[in-house]
Design goal:
metal-binding, six-stranded mixed beta sheet, mainly alpha, Zinc finger SWIM-type containing 6, 4% strand, ZSWIM4-8_C
Length: 1160
């Protein structure tokens, strides 16, 4: 961990000469080899030593171990050296040497665990040397690159490169130097490494590299592995105090003086201080017997655990949390959790210690209080980290061999954390109002508390409850400890039988709690025990499933008559905080994994570390308590199917609902990795039948609770798995799962009369399904999968279509299914499937009906697609949608998209229509157009005219519809548009008539000189002028009445005086060519109106004029003068008008000055 360039902590052990005082160790050392004696760390034989170190398999030694080595090894593993010294009066030196020799760790596994994250396994609980963070396997190349940077790998490289030197073992202390080769940017460095150890555990490390990290540095790894792999090359000395005991006074003085001389700059002040204290009679140092010896091993009171730098653990976790999920911090925290699981599996006490440090930093995260104050939710990934934290504590408190005082200490700490206000709740952002469901606490007086007074369940609540669980139950002990525990005295008269009809043991306990026991056994390195309990639980679940089926058959008539049930599970197993099904599945799969050495014994894991092997599973020989032909693999698959098919209520809260979906998908993803054989297909068949016939106890039963978790995702997996083997069963399962009762308005919510059912536990609960959009998309995916599979099968396609129309309530999803069916039906490499095309069309028609009266931003796309689909189906389909347009389209859609597309050349070419068919289709389109024009003339009249151009009668009918609507609902802009169309088609008089009708609807005020209708007014006047004097005379009164804008009127007036009206009149008769007089009607009326408009506009503008608009106003008056001068007395009128302005607005002196300068 964090290695600092400093001396190890002072030794706690005090060693003294024999006879020094009552605290001295009794007895003289026997068999001394003299001062300074040393020996290489040679074992009894190289082969035996190699076997003991794990370098050769046990049982393959070339000669037997000596009794001395066997005894010394056992003592070195279990006893602190001080106890050995106190227990025996005389300890021969050879015995001491063997104990010291065997006290160093002999397995590289722990060295690896404390110097690397493990990146090569598929599961956090997969075992030491193979745990990885939850979240999926990493890319192999990236994993290899990361792994080579790990301290453990770098340490191996340093060792293999011959970089370790000067290795010396003095008692329980190992030292040496490790040379770090020169790099491109850095010179060669030599690191001094010191390691203390006790009872095969490294208890402290120091390295001069100064590296700060959670892990041991590469130099510590290199030195440790050197001692493990090359023990015969390490010179071994007894503890330094033993050597000092051999010396006389002169030798001791020489020893001290030489030591001071060699290291005088570092130790001289300390040496002088110690000398002064020793010479002082009353000094503290003289009150203690003996002197410390850092090489003498542990005292009896020392805790025997591996070195863990707590400060660095806290700092690293704090850093990761502060990064808020960026820079891969979430991944790093998951790796830390995996490291805790790895430690637990190695039965290393530092697992709980490390988790405590992590939890303290999580609880101190300042974001918790901030989120609570702001009422915001934590991120999903961060929430998952808290879930893992709670699950790990559950594992720790369920350690089957932990001491009571340990558990009490953990319970106290957990309660303290749980009581903090900011401690996250178990179900995410929601306060869980369900009662204690783990059955861990007695349901006494508190069981009926009002839910509002019940404390919230936090992420630690289950671990707190689990502290009351124990492992002393004799039945449980027999289950986990023996493969031969049976009882054939079976009586099927009680609910909680200890054995089934075959005499196999059952374990009746709240399922998540029972599975938490399995997880705890696995996590603490008891895979066989975990497997035995898992098998008992699965057998219990299978028996329970059978019983539930029998119960449903007994009450089937009643339930089917009511059509509803209140029977449900409040606590689903998939998505549960304790992940019971995932635990059972993982335990059973671990047992049948071909390359899993952690289950059947450890292999040389350093060779396999980080190798991302493809997982292979096999049907291992059957366990005692499995049916004939069954295996761990079949049992794992079956329990996954049971859990996924469980009928359970949708939990409250967004996070809990998302977790249900996520866990279901994760479990199915693991199942998909397994290749189905005949044995597994039988399991699928068996469970599919059970689930279909299981009534309210199954999520696929005939009668389920309205708010049950839907089975779409699971059913899709069942469907694809069963389809090649039993298509009938596959379709039956998938069709049953298509329902989504929570959206059915007629579905009652449950039976309120039965207090032990859901209605009483969750009062007044209205469904708030936050994941409904995801659920509906999964329902759509299931339907799409069935449609794809049913291609070419008319009967199945009809059944699937009927199910879609009945169960899917989202127009967008039905539209997606229609598109999917269309794509499948018209694949390029095959002829179109007409049945599937009809299904596609039918779904499209349903979408049209569903979205006809609602707003949908994709509506235009949907209409266009439907026409395309109908075109593929054939001419009769197009004719049908046009005849029934009013149930499918708005009038605008029917004319502008449907009929227009049908009448297009591309459609005619695509359908290969003859003249008769073309005319029939065109007739339908014209009929549709006229109907739409009648219904919505404002938006459809122009389209109707366009579509009816080639049929005189239809065109006249459409024109009449326009005339009839012109006086009522049509706007001037619509009428002007149709009028322009009429002129373009060669109907100028009809255009003129529509233009006059449009003018009656128009009103342009004095300041609307940029109005969009101005161009239409100018066009209408130009059209009238071109038709003749009479037409112009008729429209000018309408213009005078509708237009009050002076600039527009003057523009019209000017245009009318430039050319002679009606140069080519009606019937081709030429006019005289004489310009119209301004003194006579109709232009006199227009001139007077224009002058009046200028006068009125001038007064209106002067009311609120500001100085910055003065110049613009003067220009306006200039244009007005031009119009005034068009009259024969215009000059007099304009002069009077200006004089009038000067008198009325004389207060605006600057403006009037400008008026006088310009106009006099």
């Amino acid at each position: 961990m964090a290695e600092r360039g400093q001396l190890p902590h002072p030794a706690k052990r005090l060693c003294c000469r024999p006879g020094y005082g009552s605290g001295c160790r009794p007895g003289q050392r026997a068999g001394s080899s003299g001062p300074g004696g040393g020996a290489l760390c040679a074992g009894p034989s190289s082969a035996a030593a190699a076997a003991a170190l794990g370098l050769l398999p046990l049982g393959k030694t070339q000669s037997p171990e000596s009794l001395l080595d066997i005894a010394a090894r056992k003592v070195a593993e279990k006893w602190p050296f001080q106890r050995v010294e106190e227990r025996f009066e005389r300890i021969p030196e050879p015995v001491q040497r063997r104990i010291v020799y065997w006290s160093f760790p002999r397995s590289e596994r722990e060295i690896c665990m404390y110097s690397s994250f493990n990146t090569g396994a598929e599961d956090p609980a997969a075992g030491p040397g193979g745990a990885a963070a939850p979240g999926g396997a990493m890319d192999a190349a990236a994993a290899a690159a990361d792994e080579n940077r790990l301290p453990f790998r770098r340490g191996i490289a340093l060792l293999d490169g011959g970089c370790v030197d000067n290795v010396l073992q003095v008692g329980f202390h190992l030292s040496g130097t490790v040379t770090e080769p020169a790099m491109q940017s850095e010179p060669e460095t030599v690191c001094n490494v010191a390691i203390s150890f006790d009872r095969c555990k490294i208890t402290s490390v120091t390295c001069s590299c100064g590296n700060k990290d959670i892990f041991y540095c590469a130099h510590v790894v290199a030195l440790s592995l050197y001692r493990i792999r090359k023990p015969d090359q390490v010179k071994l000395h007894l503890p330094i105090s033993e050597t000092l005991f051999q010396m006389n006074r002169d030798q001791l003085q020489k020893f001290v003086q030489y030591l001071i001389t060699v290291h005088h700059t570092e130790v001289l002040p300390t040496a002088q201080k110690l000398a002064d204290e020793i010479l002082s009679q009353n000094s503290e140092i003289n009150q203690v017997h003996g002197a410390p010896d850092p090489t003498a091993g542990a005292s009896i009171d020392d805790e025997n655990c591996w070195h863990l730098d707590e400060e660095q653990v806290q700092e690293q976790v704090k850093l990761f949390l502060s990064q808020g999920g960026y820079h891969g911090s979430g991944k790093q925290l998951n790796l830390l959790f995996a490291k805790v699981r790895e430690m637990l599996k190695m039965r290393d006490s530092n697992g709980a210690r490390m988790l405590t440090l992590i939890t303290e930093q999580f609880m101190a995260d300042p974001r918790l209080s901030l989120w609570r104050q702001q009422g915001t939710t934590m991120t999903d990934k961060y929430r998952q980290l808290w879930d893992e934290l709670g699950a790990l504590w559950m594992c720790i408190v369920l350690n089957p061999h932990c001491k009571l005082e340990q558990k009490s200490s953990w319970l106290k700490q957990l309660k303290k954390w749980s009581s903090v206000d900011v401690c996250p709740w178990e179900d995410g952002n929601h306060g869980n109002e369900l009662p204690n469901l783990t059955n861990a606490l007695p349901q006494g007086a508190n069981a009926n508390q009002d839910s509002s007074n019940r404390p919230h369940r936090t992420v630690f609540t289950r671990a707190i409850e689990a502290c009351d669980l124990h492992w002393q139950d004799s039945h449980l002990q027999h289950i986990i400890s023996s493969d031969l525990y049976t009882n054939y005295c079976y009586h099927d008269d009680t609910e909680n039988l200890l054995f089934d009809s075959q005499g196999w043991p059952l374990w009746h306990e709240h399922v998540p709690t029972a599975c938490a026991r399995v997880d705890a056994l696995r996590s603490h390195g008891y895979p066989r025990e975990a497997l035995r309990l898992a098998i008992a639980i699965v057998n219990t679940l299978r028996r329970q499933q059978q019983k539930q089926l029998e119960m449903f058959r007994a009450q089937k008539k009643e339930l089917l008559h009511r059509g509803v049930t209140s029977i449900t599970n409040l606590e689903g197993w998939v998505g549960h905080p304790l992940d019971p099904i995932g635990t059972l599945f993982g335990s059973l799969m671990e047992a049948c994994r071909v390359d899993d050495d952690s289950f059947h014994g450890f292999s040389d894991f350093t060779e396999n570390l980080g190798q991302c092997k493809s997982l292979e599973y096999q049907h291992l020989p059957a366990h005692k308590f499995l049916e004939e032909g069954e295996s761990y693999l079949t049992l794992a698959v079956e329990v996954a199917l049971i859990g996924l098919g469980q009928q359970r209520i949708m939990p409250d809260g967004l996070y809990a609902q998302e977790k249900v979906c996520r866990n279901e998908e994760q479990l199915i993803s693991k199942l998909q990795e397994i290749e189905l054989d005949d044995t597994l297909v039988k399991i699928f068949r068996k469970q599919a039948v059970f689930l279909l016939e299981g009534g309210p106890y199954s999520g696929l039963g005939e009668v389920i609770h309205r708010e049950s978790v839907p089975m779409h995702t699971f059913a899709k997996y069942l469907f694809t798995s069963l389809l090649p083997h039993d298509a009938e069963l596959a379709y039956k399962t998938a069709l049953r799962a298509m329902r989504l009762l929570v959206l059915e308005s007629t579905a009652p919510s449950g039976d309120l009369s039965r207090p032990h059912h859901i209605a009483s536990v969750v009062p007044n609960r209205y469904p708030r399904w936050f994941t409904l959009s995801h659920i509906e998309s999964q329902q759509c995916e299931l339907a799409s999968t069935m449609l794809t599979a049913a291609k070419g099968d008319v009967r199945r396609l009809e059944t699937v279509l009927e199910s879609i129309q009945k169960n899917i309530h989202s127009s967008s999803h039905i539209f997606k299914l229609a598109q999917d069916a269309f794509k499948i039906a018209t694949l390029m490499d095959s002829l179109p499937d007409i049945t599937l095309l009809k299904v596609s069309l039918e779904l499209g028609l349903q979408v049209m009906r569903m979205t006809l009266s609602t707003l949908n931003w994709r509506r235009r796309e949907m209409v266009r697609w439907l026409v395309t689909c109908a075109t593929e189906v054939g001419v009769y389909a197009l004719d049908s949608i046009m005849q029934n347009w009013f149930t499918l389209f708005t009038p605008t859609e029917a004319t502008s998209i449907v009929a227009t597309t049908v009448m297009s050349n591309s459609t005619i070419v695509r359908l290969h229509l003859d003249c008769h068919q073309q005319e029939k289709l065109a007739g339908s389109a014209r009929t549709l157009a006229l109907q739409c024009a009648m219904k919505d003339p404002q938006n459809c009249a122009l389209s109707a005219l366009t579509l009816c151009e080639k049929d005189h009668i239809a065109f006249e009918t459409a024109y009449q519809i326009v005339l009839d609507a012109a006086t009522a609902g049509m706007s001037y802009s619509q009428l002007f548009t149709i009028a322009r169309y009429m002129e373009h088609r060669g109907y100028p008089m009809r255009a003129y008539k529509l233009a006059t009708l449009a003018m009656t609807h128009l009103n342009l005020s004095y300041n609307q000189d940029t109005h969009p209708a101005i161009n239409d007014v100018l066009w209408a006047c130009a059209l009238s002028h071109s038709l003749g004097k009479n037409e112009l005379a008729a429209i000018i009164p309408l213009v005078v009445k509708s237009v009050k804008c002076a600039t527009v009127l003057s523009d019209i007036l000017r245009r009318c005086t430039l050319t002679t009206p009606g140069m080519v009149g009606l019937h081709g008769r030429r006019n005289s060519g004489k310009l119209m007089s301004l003194d006579k009607a109709p232009l006199r009326q227009l001139l007077d109106a224009t002058i009046g408009a200028y006068i009125n506009t001038t007064h209106s503008r002067l009311t609120h004029i500001s100085p910055r608009h003065y110049s613009e106003f003067i220009e306006f008056l200039s244009k007005a003068r031009e119009t005034f001068l068009m009259a024969h007395d215009g000059h007099i009128q304009f002069t009077q008008f200006i004089d009038n302005l000067k008198q009325i607005y004389k207060g605006k002196k600057k403006l009037m000055m400008l008026v006088r300068e310009r106009f006099g």
